[in-house]
Design brief:
The chain has 472 residues and is α+β, with helices and mostly antiparallel strands. The chain folds into four domains: 146 residues, 2-Layer Sandwich (Beta-Lactamase), CATH 3.30.450; 90 residues, 2-Layer Sandwich (Beta-Lactamase), CATH 3.30.450.20; 73 residues; 117 residues, Histidine kinase-like ATPase, C-terminal domain (Heat Shock Protein 90, 2-Layer Sandwich), CATH 3.30.565. Helices cover 38% and strands 28% of the residues. Strand 11 and strand 12 form a beta hairpin. The radius of gyration is 33 Å and the shape is elongated.
Length: 472
C-alpha cells in the first residue's frame, strides 16, 4: 500500500496525512469488495483537475463480475465517471446505473466520498449487478461496507481485514449485538453445531457456546479467535464498526479451518518422525565410527590404520549431515552451515589441540533440499579432509575458506586453504587417491558438474554445477 502514497505524491496535491488515510482505505478494499459482493475502486482527482486517478481496485471473490476493472495507477477522463465526479463535488453518496454492451451487463454503481473535514478528497465506488440490492441481505452487506468506509480513519489491519473466501461464514450484528444477516456458509457451519435460525439471535447467546471445547486468542491478533466445537476448528474474526466509541455494527467472519489444522498436525508429526530418524541414523553412524576406531587401534599395519581412519572421517562427515537434519527437519540445508558442522568434527578429531584453525566462509547463501544434499556433503567432507590432512604440515595455524557464488545458470562452490599448495606436477585425473576418486565421481557423474584444482598461495578447489529448478 506504499504505492498509494507514491501515486498521491506523483499525481495529486493530497497531503501526507490524507494519503495515509487513503492507504488505510486501500488496505481493506479487497475485504470491502468481498463483503459487499461488489467490485470496488478508489478514485482521487489529479493535480491538474482534468482526470481521475485509480489508487486501488478489488474484485469480489464471491461472484462473477462482468466489468473489467482499471488497474491501480490508471488515469481516467473525468467525463468517463460522472457519478464519481458528482460525489467529489457534493460529498454526498450517490447511486446510478452503469451500462455495458447489453442490459444483462448493467451494473448499479454506489459512490461514497472519503472526507477530510467537509470536503471529499476521494471516492470509493461499489458496483453490483443491477437489481441485486432488492434483496434485503445484499442491501445489508452494502450498507455495512459503507459504514466501514465512513469510519476507517484508523488503519484497517490487513490481516484482520483480509479477503473473504466463498466458503467463509459471514454474520452481521446491529448495535445491540443482534444478528441481522447470515450467509449460507454461516448457517451451514452453525447448523452443524446445533444452532438453528441465526437471524435475531444475539452473538453472545448461550447456543453459540454450547459445543465449544477450546478457545485460543493469539496475542498479536486480538480480533481473531480459534475455536474447537463439535469436531470443527473455526477461525472467528470479530470486526466491530465504531463511530465515536459507539458500536454501529459488528462483522463476524467464520472460517472452517478443520482440514487445514489436520494437515498441519500431520505435517508436524511427519517432521518429528523425520527428525527422529535422522537422529537415530546419526547415532548409528557414530557407533560404527567408534567400532572402526577400536579396530584401527588393534590393526598391526600402518596402512590399515590409515585406511580405517579415513573411513571413520567419512562416516563422521555423513553423521554431521544427519545431525544438522535432525535439528531442522524437512527445511532446506544451508551449505555454509553444513560445511561448518563437518569442519568442526574433522578439526576436533584430526588436528592437534593447540592448532589455530580459522574459517573464512563468504559469498551467497545456498540452500539445498535434504533429499539432495548427501552427494554434496560427501564432496565437501573429502575436500576438507584433504585440506586438514595435507595443507598444514609442521604448522600451528591455518585458514580454510568456503566461497559460494550462485549465478543464473551455474553455482560455483570453492573450497580453499592457505597451506602448502598442490605438489609439483599434480594431475587430479591421474591420482589414485580414493578420496579424489569419490570427489570426481560425485561432481561429474552425480551432480553433472566440473572440477578444477588451483595452486595459488595454498590450494583452491572449484566445483561448478548447473543450476536447476531445485538448487543443485
Amino acid at each position: 500500500m506504499d504505492d498509494i502514497r507514491a501515486l498521491c505524491r506523483t499525481h495529486t496535491d493530497i497531503s501526507g496525512r490524507q494519503a495515509e488515510l487513503l492507504k488505510n482505505i486501500g488496505a481493506g478494499l479487497a475485504f470491502i469488495a468481498d463483503l459487499a459482493q461488489a467490485q470496488a475502486s478508489l478514485f482521487v482527482p489529479t493535480r491538474d483537475g482534468g482526470s481521475l486517478l485509480v489508487l486501488a481496485q478489488a474484485r469480489s471473490h464471491t461472484m462473477v463480475q462482468p466489468l473489467c476493472l482499471a488497474p491501480a495507477g490508471t488515469l481516467i477522463p473525468r467525463d468517463a465517471e460522472p457519478l464519481v465526479c458528482r460525489t467529489l463535488a457534493s460529498g454526498e453518496p450517490l447511486v446510478g446505473l452503469r451500462e455495458e454492451q447489453s442490459p444483462p451487463d448493467s451494473l448499479e454503481m454506489h459512490t461514497y466520498g472519503i472526507h477530510d473535514g467537509k470536503d471529499a478528497i476521494a471516492v470509493v465506488s461499489l458496483e453490483v449487478p443491477a437489481g441485486q440490492l432488492q434483496d434485503r441481505g445484499s442491501r445489508c452487506l452494502v450498507d455495512t461496507a459503507r459504514m466501514i468506509l465512513q469510519n476507517s480513519r484508523r488503519a484497517l489491519d490487513p490481516e484482520a481485514y483480509r479477503a473473504i473466501s466463498p466458503r467463509d461464514g459471514i454474520l452481521i450484528a446491529d448495535a445491540y449485538e443482534r444478528i441481522i444477516y447470515a450467509n449460507a456458509a454461516a448457517q451451514h457451519i452453525y447448523r452443524v453445531l446445533g444452532v438453528g435460525s441465526l437471524l435475531g439471535m444475539r452473538l453472545q447467546a448461550p447456543e453459540f457456546r454450547r459445543h465449544i471445547t477450546r478457545e485460543t486468542v493469539a496475542p498479536d491478533r486480538p480480533t481473531e479467535k480459534e475455536i474447537e466445537a463439535g469436531g470443527l476448528v473455526l477461525l472467528r474474526r470479530d470486526l466491530p464498526i465504531l463511530a465515536g466509541g459507539r458500536l454501529l455494527r459488528r462483522v463476524v467472519v467464520v472460517e472452517d479451518v478443520t482440514a487445514l489444522r489436520q494437515k498441519e498436525t500431520e505435517l508436524a508429526i511427519r517432521e518429528t518422525v523425520i527428525r527422529e530418524i535422522h537422529h537415530r541414523v546419526k547415532n548409528n553412524l557414530q557407533t560404527i565410527a567408534s567400532l572402526l576406531r577400536m579396530q584401527a587401534r588393534r590393526a598391526p599395519e600402518a596402512a590399515v590404520k590409515e585406511a580405517l581412519g579415513e573411513s571413520v572421517n567419512r562416516i563422521q562427515g555423513i553423521a554431521a549431515l544427519h545431525r544438522l537434519l535432525s535439528r531442522q527437519g524437512m527445511t532446506d540445508v544451508d551449505v555454509h552451515a553444513l560445511a561448518g558442522e563437518m569442519l568442526d568434527l574433522l578439526a576436533a578429531s584430526s588436528l592437534p589441540t593447540d592448532f589455530r584453525l580459522e574459517r573464512r566462509f563468504t559469498g551467497d547463501r545456498l540452500l539445498i533440499p535434504p533429499s539432495r544434499c548427501t552427494n554434496l556433503a560427501l564432496v565437501i567432507n573429502e575436500l576438507l579432509l584433504n585440506a586438514i590432512g595435507h595443507a598444514f604440515p609442521q604448522r600451528s595455524h591455518g585458514t580454510i575458506g568456503l566461497d559460494i557464488r550462485a549465478g543464473a545458470d551455474e553455482v560455483t562452490i570453492a573450497l580453499s586453504d592457505d597451506g602448502a599448495g598442490l605438489p609439483e606436477g599434480f594431475d587430479e585425473k591421474a591420482e589414485k587417491s580414493l578420496g579424489l576418486h569419490i570427489v570426481r565421481t560425485m561432481v561429474e557423474d552425480d551432480l553433472g558438474g566440473r572440477l578444477q584444482f588451483i595452486s595459488d598461495k595454498g590450494t583452491r578447489v572449484e566445483i561448478v554445477v548447473p543450476r536447476r529448478e531445485e538448487p543443485l
